[in-house]
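Researcher: Predict the fold of Protein translocase subunit SecY.
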Amino acid sequence: MGVIINIFKLPELRRRVLFTLAMLAVYRFGVFVAVPGVDRNVMAQLVSQQTGGFLGYFNMFSGGALSNLSVFALGIMPYISASIIMQLMTVVVPKIEQLQKEGESGRRKINQFSRYGTVGLALVQGYFMGSWLESQNTPGQMLVLESGLGFKLMTMLSLTAGTCFLMWLGEQITERGIGNGISLIIFAGIIADLPAGSYQLYQKAIDDPENFGPVPLAILLVVVIAVIAFVVIMERGQRRIPVIYAKRVVGRKMFGGSQNYLPLRINNAGVIPPIFASSIIMFPAQIAGMTGNPYLQRFAAAFDYGNWLYLTVYVALCIFFCYFYTQIQFNPVDLADNLKKQNASIPGIRPGKRTAEYIEFILTRLTFAGAWYISAVCVLPVFLQKDFNVPFYYGGTSLLIVVGVALDTAQQIESHLVTRSYEGFAGPKGPRIRGRK
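Model: C-alpha coordinates for Protein translocase subunit SecY follow.
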Protein backbone atom coordinates (compact mmCIF):
# COMPACT_ATOMS: atom_id res chain seq x y z
CA MET A 1 0.00 0.00 0.00
CA GLY A 2 2.88 2.35 0.78
CA VAL A 3 4.29 1.83 -2.73
CA ILE A 4 0.95 2.78 -4.31
CA ILE A 5 0.82 5.93 -2.17
CA ASN A 6 4.37 6.85 -3.22
CA ILE A 7 3.43 6.46 -6.89
CA PHE A 8 0.64 9.02 -6.56
CA LYS A 9 2.83 11.40 -4.54
CA LEU A 10 4.97 12.14 -7.60
CA PRO A 11 3.03 14.45 -9.97
CA GLU A 12 4.87 13.32 -13.11
CA LEU A 13 4.62 9.61 -12.31
CA ARG A 14 0.98 10.02 -11.27
CA ARG A 15 0.16 11.64 -14.61
CA ARG A 16 1.94 8.92 -16.54
CA VAL A 17 0.25 6.07 -14.67
CA LEU A 18 -3.23 7.62 -14.95
CA PHE A 19 -2.69 8.39 -18.64
CA THR A 20 -1.66 4.77 -19.28
CA LEU A 21 -4.69 3.41 -17.45
CA ALA A 22 -6.99 5.80 -19.34
CA MET A 23 -5.60 4.73 -22.72
CA LEU A 24 -5.93 1.04 -21.84
CA ALA A 25 -9.53 1.71 -20.78
CA VAL A 26 -10.18 3.30 -24.19
CA TYR A 27 -8.73 0.20 -25.83
CA ARG A 28 -10.97 -2.12 -23.80
CA PHE A 29 -14.06 -0.04 -24.67
CA GLY A 30 -13.14 -0.22 -28.34
CA VAL A 31 -13.09 -4.03 -28.21
CA PHE A 32 -16.89 -3.93 -28.01
CA VAL A 33 -17.39 -1.61 -31.03
CA ALA A 34 -18.49 -4.08 -33.71
CA VAL A 35 -17.88 -3.93 -37.46
CA PRO A 36 -21.10 -2.84 -39.24
CA GLY A 37 -23.27 -5.50 -40.84
CA VAL A 38 -22.28 -8.59 -38.81
CA ASP A 39 -23.83 -10.75 -36.09
CA ARG A 40 -21.48 -10.88 -33.11
CA ASN A 41 -23.29 -13.80 -31.49
CA VAL A 42 -22.62 -16.03 -34.48
CA MET A 43 -18.94 -15.01 -34.50
CA ALA A 44 -18.62 -15.72 -30.78
CA GLN A 45 -19.93 -19.26 -31.42
CA LEU A 46 -17.40 -19.81 -34.22
CA VAL A 47 -14.50 -18.68 -32.03
CA SER A 48 -15.66 -20.74 -29.04
CA GLN A 49 -15.68 -23.86 -31.22
CA GLN A 50 -11.95 -23.33 -31.93
CA THR A 51 -10.71 -22.36 -28.49
CA GLY A 52 -7.50 -24.28 -29.00
CA GLY A 53 -7.19 -23.60 -32.71
CA PHE A 54 -6.18 -20.72 -34.90
CA LEU A 55 -9.22 -18.53 -34.21
CA GLY A 56 -8.83 -18.93 -30.46
CA TYR A 57 -5.13 -18.17 -30.65
CA PHE A 58 -5.73 -15.07 -32.78
CA ASN A 59 -8.58 -14.02 -30.48
CA MET A 60 -6.20 -14.12 -27.50
CA PHE A 61 -3.74 -11.69 -29.13
CA SER A 62 -6.60 -9.38 -30.13
CA GLY A 63 -7.87 -9.27 -26.54
CA GLY A 64 -11.22 -10.87 -27.41
CA ALA A 65 -11.85 -8.38 -30.23
CA LEU A 66 -12.17 -11.15 -32.82
CA SER A 67 -15.00 -12.93 -30.99
CA ASN A 68 -16.82 -9.58 -30.78
CA LEU A 69 -16.00 -8.76 -34.43
CA SER A 70 -14.71 -5.44 -33.19
CA VAL A 71 -12.97 -2.78 -35.25
CA PHE A 72 -9.90 -3.93 -33.28
CA ALA A 73 -10.25 -7.52 -34.58
CA LEU A 74 -6.90 -7.40 -36.39
CA GLY A 75 -5.30 -6.19 -33.18
CA ILE A 76 -1.81 -4.78 -33.27
CA MET A 77 -0.43 -7.67 -35.35
CA PRO A 78 -0.18 -5.69 -38.65
CA TYR A 79 2.04 -3.17 -36.89
CA ILE A 80 4.17 -5.94 -35.44
CA SER A 81 4.47 -7.58 -38.88
CA ALA A 82 5.51 -4.25 -40.42
CA SER A 83 8.07 -3.77 -37.65
CA ILE A 84 9.48 -7.24 -38.36
CA ILE A 85 9.87 -6.35 -42.03
CA MET A 86 11.67 -3.10 -41.20
CA GLN A 87 13.96 -4.86 -38.70
CA LEU A 88 14.91 -7.40 -41.35
CA MET A 89 15.47 -4.68 -43.93
CA THR A 90 17.95 -2.92 -41.63
CA VAL A 91 20.25 -5.88 -42.22
CA VAL A 92 19.56 -6.23 -45.96
CA VAL A 93 19.26 -2.59 -47.14
CA PRO A 94 22.33 -0.42 -46.37
CA LYS A 95 20.37 2.87 -46.50
CA ILE A 96 17.95 1.70 -43.81
CA GLU A 97 20.88 0.48 -41.71
CA GLN A 98 22.43 3.92 -42.05
CA LEU A 99 19.16 5.50 -40.93
CA GLN A 100 19.19 3.35 -37.82
CA LYS A 101 22.68 4.62 -36.93
CA GLU A 102 21.63 8.26 -37.27
CA GLY A 103 20.07 8.25 -33.84
CA GLU A 104 16.63 9.60 -32.99
CA SER A 105 15.96 11.17 -36.39
CA GLY A 106 16.77 7.92 -38.19
CA ARG A 107 14.56 5.90 -35.86
CA ARG A 108 11.69 8.29 -36.49
CA LYS A 109 11.98 7.76 -40.24
CA ILE A 110 12.05 3.98 -39.77
CA ASN A 111 8.98 4.20 -37.52
CA GLN A 112 7.25 6.24 -40.21
CA PHE A 113 7.98 3.52 -42.77
CA SER A 114 6.60 0.97 -40.31
CA ARG A 115 3.38 2.97 -40.05
CA TYR A 116 2.97 3.00 -43.82
CA GLY A 117 3.56 -0.75 -43.89
CA THR A 118 0.99 -1.21 -41.13
CA VAL A 119 -1.69 0.54 -43.20
CA GLY A 120 -0.90 -1.60 -46.24
CA LEU A 121 -0.94 -4.89 -44.33
CA ALA A 122 -4.13 -3.92 -42.49
CA LEU A 123 -5.90 -3.13 -45.77
CA VAL A 124 -4.92 -6.49 -47.24
CA GLN A 125 -5.87 -8.45 -44.12
CA GLY A 126 -9.10 -6.46 -43.77
CA TYR A 127 -10.19 -7.37 -47.29
CA PHE A 128 -9.44 -11.05 -46.68
CA MET A 129 -11.27 -10.84 -43.36
CA GLY A 130 -14.36 -9.51 -45.14
CA SER A 131 -14.19 -12.34 -47.68
CA TRP A 132 -13.81 -14.93 -44.95
CA LEU A 133 -16.75 -13.55 -42.98
CA GLU A 134 -18.96 -13.85 -46.05
CA SER A 135 -17.85 -17.45 -46.56
CA GLN A 136 -19.12 -18.36 -43.09
CA ASN A 137 -22.75 -17.67 -44.05
CA THR A 138 -24.90 -20.81 -44.05
CA PRO A 139 -28.67 -21.21 -44.55
CA GLY A 140 -29.22 -21.57 -40.82
CA GLN A 141 -26.50 -19.19 -39.66
CA MET A 142 -26.09 -15.72 -41.14
CA LEU A 143 -22.88 -14.09 -39.94
CA VAL A 144 -22.95 -11.29 -42.54
CA LEU A 145 -26.32 -9.62 -42.96
CA GLU A 146 -25.72 -8.17 -46.45
CA SER A 147 -22.87 -9.63 -48.50
CA GLY A 148 -21.17 -7.91 -51.39
CA LEU A 149 -18.36 -5.57 -52.35
CA GLY A 150 -19.75 -2.81 -50.13
CA PHE A 151 -19.44 -5.00 -47.05
CA LYS A 152 -15.88 -5.98 -47.93
CA LEU A 153 -14.83 -2.36 -48.39
CA MET A 154 -16.57 -1.33 -45.16
CA THR A 155 -14.85 -4.15 -43.26
CA MET A 156 -11.48 -3.33 -44.79
CA LEU A 157 -11.72 0.36 -43.86
CA SER A 158 -13.12 -0.33 -40.38
CA LEU A 159 -10.42 -2.84 -39.44
CA THR A 160 -7.64 -0.68 -40.90
CA ALA A 161 -8.89 2.33 -38.94
CA GLY A 162 -9.01 0.20 -35.78
CA THR A 163 -5.45 -1.04 -36.26
CA CYS A 164 -4.15 2.48 -36.95
CA PHE A 165 -5.90 3.75 -33.82
CA LEU A 166 -4.29 0.98 -31.75
CA MET A 167 -0.91 1.86 -33.23
CA TRP A 168 -1.41 5.51 -32.29
CA LEU A 169 -2.64 4.49 -28.85
CA GLY A 170 0.47 2.39 -28.23
CA GLU A 171 2.79 5.19 -29.32
CA GLN A 172 1.00 7.66 -27.04
CA ILE A 173 1.40 5.31 -24.06
CA THR A 174 5.11 4.87 -24.80
CA GLU A 175 5.67 8.62 -25.11
CA ARG A 176 3.38 10.05 -22.45
CA GLY A 177 2.62 7.06 -20.22
CA ILE A 178 4.64 4.38 -18.48
CA GLY A 179 5.99 1.24 -20.15
CA ASN A 180 5.97 0.09 -23.76
CA GLY A 181 2.60 0.91 -25.30
CA ILE A 182 2.39 -1.91 -27.83
CA SER A 183 3.37 -4.53 -25.25
CA LEU A 184 0.89 -3.10 -22.73
CA ILE A 185 -1.96 -3.34 -25.25
CA ILE A 186 -1.21 -7.03 -25.80
CA PHE A 187 -0.79 -7.42 -22.02
CA ALA A 188 -4.22 -5.85 -21.37
CA GLY A 189 -5.87 -8.12 -23.94
CA ILE A 190 -4.42 -11.27 -22.38
CA ILE A 191 -5.28 -10.21 -18.83
CA ALA A 192 -8.85 -9.42 -19.89
CA ASP A 193 -9.33 -13.03 -21.04
CA LEU A 194 -8.03 -14.61 -17.83
CA PRO A 195 -11.37 -14.42 -15.96
CA ALA A 196 -13.13 -16.19 -18.83
CA GLY A 197 -10.46 -18.89 -18.86
CA SER A 198 -10.74 -19.34 -15.10
CA TYR A 199 -14.50 -19.67 -15.39
CA GLN A 200 -14.07 -22.34 -18.07
CA LEU A 201 -11.83 -24.30 -15.72
CA TYR A 202 -14.43 -23.97 -12.97
CA GLN A 203 -17.18 -25.20 -15.27
CA LYS A 204 -15.03 -28.10 -16.43
CA ALA A 205 -14.38 -29.14 -12.83
CA ILE A 206 -18.14 -29.11 -12.14
CA ASP A 207 -19.19 -30.91 -15.33
CA ASP A 208 -16.46 -33.59 -15.24
CA PRO A 209 -15.38 -34.10 -11.61
CA GLU A 210 -13.96 -37.58 -12.28
CA ASN A 211 -11.43 -36.60 -14.95
CA PHE A 212 -10.92 -33.00 -13.83
CA GLY A 213 -11.17 -33.10 -10.06
CA PRO A 214 -9.14 -31.53 -7.27
CA VAL A 215 -5.93 -33.43 -8.09
CA PRO A 216 -5.61 -32.25 -11.73
CA LEU A 217 -6.53 -28.72 -10.64
CA ALA A 218 -3.86 -28.80 -7.92
CA ILE A 219 -1.27 -30.09 -10.40
CA LEU A 220 -2.22 -27.36 -12.86
CA LEU A 221 -1.93 -24.69 -10.17
CA VAL A 222 1.53 -25.95 -9.15
CA VAL A 223 2.65 -25.96 -12.79
CA VAL A 224 1.44 -22.40 -13.36
CA ILE A 225 3.14 -21.09 -10.19
CA ALA A 226 6.36 -22.95 -11.04
CA VAL A 227 6.39 -21.55 -14.57
CA ILE A 228 5.79 -18.00 -13.31
CA ALA A 229 8.65 -18.35 -10.82
CA PHE A 230 10.91 -19.79 -13.54
CA VAL A 231 10.08 -16.93 -15.92
CA VAL A 232 10.79 -14.30 -13.25
CA ILE A 233 14.15 -15.92 -12.38
CA MET A 234 15.21 -16.15 -16.02
CA GLU A 235 14.05 -12.63 -16.86
CA ARG A 236 16.08 -11.19 -13.98
CA GLY A 237 19.12 -13.40 -14.57
CA GLN A 238 22.23 -11.73 -15.92
CA ARG A 239 25.95 -12.21 -16.44
CA ARG A 240 28.02 -9.35 -15.04
CA ILE A 241 31.29 -8.69 -16.86
CA PRO A 242 33.72 -6.69 -14.66
CA VAL A 243 34.98 -3.45 -16.20
CA ILE A 244 37.89 -1.37 -14.85
CA TYR A 245 38.24 2.34 -15.69
CA ALA A 246 41.81 3.60 -16.00
CA LYS A 247 42.98 6.56 -13.92
CA ARG A 248 43.52 9.86 -15.68
CA VAL A 249 44.71 13.24 -14.46
CA VAL A 250 42.85 16.39 -15.48
CA GLY A 251 44.56 19.50 -14.07
CA ARG A 252 45.20 18.76 -10.39
CA LYS A 253 42.44 16.19 -10.08
CA MET A 254 42.51 12.47 -10.73
CA PHE A 255 39.50 10.77 -12.30
CA GLY A 256 38.71 7.12 -12.94
CA GLY A 257 40.24 4.14 -11.28
CA SER A 258 36.81 2.75 -10.38
CA GLN A 259 35.44 -0.70 -11.12
CA ASN A 260 32.01 -1.39 -12.54
CA TYR A 261 30.35 -4.16 -14.52
CA LEU A 262 28.65 -4.67 -17.85
CA PRO A 263 25.33 -6.54 -17.32
CA LEU A 264 24.33 -8.99 -20.05
CA ARG A 265 20.95 -10.63 -19.54
CA ILE A 266 20.00 -14.19 -20.31
CA ASN A 267 16.99 -12.93 -22.26
CA ASN A 268 18.13 -9.73 -23.92
CA ALA A 269 15.36 -9.86 -26.52
CA GLY A 270 12.52 -9.78 -23.97
CA VAL A 271 9.06 -10.69 -25.29
CA ILE A 272 9.89 -9.68 -28.86
CA PRO A 273 10.76 -13.22 -30.15
CA PRO A 274 7.46 -14.92 -29.17
CA ILE A 275 5.42 -11.96 -30.41
CA PHE A 276 7.25 -11.86 -33.74
CA ALA A 277 7.13 -15.66 -34.11
CA SER A 278 3.40 -15.75 -33.34
CA SER A 279 2.73 -12.97 -35.82
CA ILE A 280 4.58 -14.75 -38.63
CA ILE A 281 3.13 -18.20 -38.00
CA MET A 282 -0.41 -16.80 -37.71
CA PHE A 283 -0.27 -14.76 -40.92
CA PRO A 284 -0.34 -17.66 -43.46
CA ALA A 285 -3.12 -19.41 -41.56
CA GLN A 286 -5.08 -16.17 -41.42
CA ILE A 287 -4.77 -15.55 -45.17
CA ALA A 288 -5.59 -19.18 -45.99
CA GLY A 289 -8.65 -19.19 -43.77
CA MET A 290 -9.95 -15.89 -45.12
CA THR A 291 -9.40 -16.56 -48.83
CA GLY A 292 -10.90 -20.04 -48.81
CA ASN A 293 -8.29 -21.25 -51.32
CA PRO A 294 -8.07 -25.07 -51.00
CA TYR A 295 -4.32 -25.16 -51.67
CA LEU A 296 -3.61 -22.51 -49.07
CA GLN A 297 -5.93 -24.25 -46.62
CA ARG A 298 -4.05 -27.54 -47.04
CA PHE A 299 -0.79 -25.66 -46.50
CA ALA A 300 -2.18 -23.98 -43.39
CA ALA A 301 -3.58 -27.29 -42.10
CA ALA A 302 -0.02 -28.58 -41.85
CA PHE A 303 0.63 -25.79 -39.33
CA ASP A 304 -2.38 -26.44 -37.12
CA TYR A 305 -1.88 -25.35 -33.55
CA GLY A 306 -0.23 -28.11 -31.56
CA ASN A 307 1.11 -30.46 -34.23
CA TRP A 308 4.79 -31.27 -34.62
CA LEU A 309 5.37 -29.02 -37.65
CA TYR A 310 3.80 -26.05 -35.87
CA LEU A 311 5.98 -26.61 -32.81
CA THR A 312 9.12 -27.07 -34.90
CA VAL A 313 8.61 -23.88 -36.91
CA TYR A 314 7.55 -21.90 -33.85
CA VAL A 315 10.63 -22.93 -31.86
CA ALA A 316 12.88 -22.20 -34.85
CA LEU A 317 11.37 -18.72 -35.24
CA CYS A 318 11.75 -18.00 -31.52
CA ILE A 319 15.42 -19.01 -31.59
CA PHE A 320 16.04 -16.99 -34.76
CA PHE A 321 14.47 -13.81 -33.39
CA CYS A 322 16.31 -14.20 -30.08
CA TYR A 323 19.64 -14.10 -31.89
CA PHE A 324 18.50 -11.54 -34.45
CA TYR A 325 17.05 -9.04 -31.98
CA THR A 326 19.95 -9.47 -29.55
CA GLN A 327 22.41 -8.78 -32.36
CA ILE A 328 20.53 -5.58 -33.22
CA GLN A 329 20.35 -4.38 -29.62
CA PHE A 330 23.92 -5.31 -28.62
CA ASN A 331 26.71 -4.88 -31.13
CA PRO A 332 29.92 -6.28 -29.54
CA VAL A 333 32.13 -4.13 -31.77
CA ASP A 334 30.33 -0.93 -30.75
CA LEU A 335 30.45 -1.94 -27.08
CA ALA A 336 34.20 -2.60 -27.31
CA ASP A 337 34.78 0.76 -29.02
CA ASN A 338 32.76 2.61 -26.38
CA LEU A 339 34.73 0.95 -23.60
CA LYS A 340 37.98 1.88 -25.31
CA LYS A 341 36.89 5.51 -25.68
CA GLN A 342 36.07 5.63 -21.96
CA ASN A 343 39.52 4.23 -21.02
CA ALA A 344 37.80 1.11 -19.71
CA SER A 345 38.83 -2.50 -20.13
CA ILE A 346 37.85 -6.00 -19.08
CA PRO A 347 40.46 -7.59 -16.77
CA GLY A 348 42.66 -10.02 -18.68
CA ILE A 349 41.23 -8.99 -22.10
CA ARG A 350 43.00 -6.62 -24.47
CA PRO A 351 40.93 -3.61 -25.63
CA GLY A 352 39.57 -3.49 -29.16
CA LYS A 353 39.06 -6.63 -31.21
CA ARG A 354 39.75 -9.09 -28.38
CA THR A 355 37.18 -7.34 -26.17
CA ALA A 356 34.57 -7.50 -28.93
CA GLU A 357 35.25 -11.22 -29.45
CA TYR A 358 35.01 -11.88 -25.71
CA ILE A 359 31.68 -10.02 -25.41
CA GLU A 360 30.31 -11.80 -28.48
CA PHE A 361 31.37 -15.17 -27.06
CA ILE A 362 29.52 -14.56 -23.79
CA LEU A 363 26.51 -13.01 -25.53
CA THR A 364 26.18 -16.00 -27.86
CA ARG A 365 26.14 -18.47 -24.98
CA LEU A 366 23.63 -16.39 -23.01
CA THR A 367 21.39 -16.04 -26.07
CA PHE A 368 21.52 -19.80 -26.61
CA ALA A 369 20.23 -20.39 -23.09
CA GLY A 370 17.67 -17.61 -23.39
CA ALA A 371 16.36 -18.84 -26.74
CA TRP A 372 15.72 -22.34 -25.46
CA TYR A 373 14.18 -20.98 -22.27
CA ILE A 374 11.70 -18.90 -24.32
CA SER A 375 10.95 -21.84 -26.62
CA ALA A 376 10.31 -24.18 -23.70
CA VAL A 377 7.93 -21.77 -22.01
CA CYS A 378 6.07 -20.98 -25.23
CA VAL A 379 5.34 -24.62 -26.15
CA LEU A 380 4.10 -25.41 -22.64
CA PRO A 381 0.42 -24.67 -23.48
CA VAL A 382 0.35 -27.50 -26.01
CA PHE A 383 1.12 -30.11 -23.36
CA LEU A 384 -1.24 -28.51 -20.86
CA GLN A 385 -4.00 -28.60 -23.41
CA LYS A 386 -3.39 -32.25 -24.34
CA ASP A 387 -2.95 -33.56 -20.79
CA PHE A 388 -5.38 -31.34 -18.88
CA ASN A 389 -7.62 -30.00 -21.66
CA VAL A 390 -7.38 -26.43 -20.36
CA PRO A 391 -7.48 -23.08 -22.20
CA PHE A 392 -4.09 -22.12 -23.59
CA TYR A 393 -4.13 -18.79 -21.74
CA TYR A 394 -2.24 -20.50 -18.92
CA GLY A 395 1.46 -20.54 -19.67
CA GLY A 396 3.43 -20.17 -22.84
CA THR A 397 3.50 -17.06 -24.94
CA SER A 398 0.75 -15.30 -23.01
CA LEU A 399 2.39 -15.96 -19.65
CA LEU A 400 5.80 -14.85 -20.92
CA ILE A 401 4.31 -11.62 -22.27
CA VAL A 402 2.36 -10.92 -19.08
CA VAL A 403 5.33 -11.51 -16.75
CA GLY A 404 7.83 -9.75 -19.00
CA VAL A 405 5.69 -6.65 -19.54
CA ALA A 406 4.82 -6.51 -15.83
CA LEU A 407 8.53 -6.63 -14.87
CA ASP A 408 9.46 -3.93 -17.39
CA THR A 409 6.64 -1.63 -16.29
CA ALA A 410 7.44 -2.18 -12.62
CA GLN A 411 11.10 -1.44 -13.29
CA GLN A 412 10.24 1.87 -14.98
CA ILE A 413 7.96 2.86 -12.10
CA GLU A 414 10.67 1.94 -9.60
CA SER A 415 13.22 4.03 -11.51
CA HIS A 416 11.00 7.09 -11.03
CA LEU A 417 10.55 6.29 -7.34
CA VAL A 418 14.25 5.72 -6.66
CA THR A 419 15.22 8.87 -8.57
CA ARG A 420 12.99 10.93 -6.27
CA SER A 421 14.33 9.17 -3.13
CA TYR A 422 11.27 7.02 -2.62
CA GLU A 423 11.36 3.34 -1.75
CA GLY A 424 11.04 0.78 -4.53
CA PHE A 425 8.54 -2.03 -4.81
CA ALA A 426 10.50 -4.26 -2.44
CA GLY A 427 10.94 -1.62 0.26
CA PRO A 428 14.12 0.08 1.52
CA LYS A 429 16.01 -3.18 2.12
CA GLY A 430 14.55 -5.25 -0.69
CA PRO A 431 16.16 -6.02 -4.05
CA ARG A 432 15.69 -3.71 -6.98
CA ILE A 433 13.66 -4.82 -9.98
CA ARG A 434 15.87 -5.15 -13.03
CA GLY A 435 14.47 -4.40 -16.46
CA ARG A 436 15.62 -6.16 -19.61
CA LYS A 437 16.93 -3.09 -21.34
